[in-house]
Design brief:
This protein is α/β, with parallel strands linked by helices. It is 32% helix and 21% strand. The protein has a five-stranded mixed β-sheet with strand order 2-3-4-1-5, covered by helices on one side. It is globular.
Length: 119
Amino acid sequence: MPLSPAQKQIADSTARFRSAICGRRFGKTYLAIRELARYSIQPNTLSWYIAPTRGQGKGIVWDQLKDRLGALNWIAKTNESDLIMTLVNGSQIEIRSADAYDRIRGSIVTGKQIGRAHV
């Protein structure tokens, strides 16, 4: 998945936490999908895309994620009701919401992408 120079700068950062304040059409969702794929290359890992609400997560990234990873033949199965994608290597990508804090606590997650965070 090719990146623009600005996206590449974010993707190549070795910082533990990366935050990007970007305008419309920057490619934030595209970069998030790429990063989820990068974390999911390792077998049997769990990665999350965390959106403000479940509906926003589904609307923002779910279909694009299915299209991109489906084109690479990485998807073994998808659970549309729970928004969970299982990859051929056993890794899982889940769309989660931040509206209920207790639902995102306590799991061991390899990669997390937080979309549309508001301060």
